[in-house]
Amino acid sequence: MKAAEVHKFSADEIKVEATRLRRRLFDLRTQSVTEKIEDTSQFRKTHKDLARVLTELNGRKAKVAKAAKDSAAAAVAPTATAATGAKAATRGKVATGAKVASAAKKSGGKS
């Protein structure tokens, strides 16, 4: 199976193919235990096919996640700047208070 073939599959077909390939690997391992396997290269071929299928599936999941993240960031962007400005102002006050408390602690509470 080539990667170009996997690209043409739908998401459901990819999941079915991954299940089929996992079952095929299980069957090959079972055959190897009973010493009935004739072509040992099937392990490698099946494993590589499974890797191709799972890579495509994970790539599609990543694209969907990135698209969702980008659309969510675009929808929140205008309000995020106002909230960030408020947080920055608050942080300045907290940092100043923390510096004063830290200095007081170092000097033993004496001013």
Largest sheet: none
Radius of gyration: 29 Å
Ranges where pLDDT stays below 50 over 5 or more residues in a row are none
Number of strands: 0
Mean pLDDT: 79
Structural class: mainly alpha
Number of helices: 3
What secondary-structure arrangement, pairings included, does this model have?
Layout: H1 3-8, H2 11-33, H3 41-106
Structural overview:
With about 110 residues, this protein is mainly alpha-helical. The chain is about 85% helix and about 0% strand. The protein has 3 helices and no strands. The chain has helices spanning about 5-10, 10-35, 40-105. Helix 2 (about 10-35) crosses helix 3 (about 40-105). The longest helix is centred in the middle third of the chain and has 66 residues, at about 40-105. It starts with a helix and ends in a 5-residue tail after the last helix. The model has no long low-confidence stretch (mean pLDDT about 80).
List its traits:
111 residues; 0% strand; single chain; 3 helices; mainly alpha; 86% helix; elongated
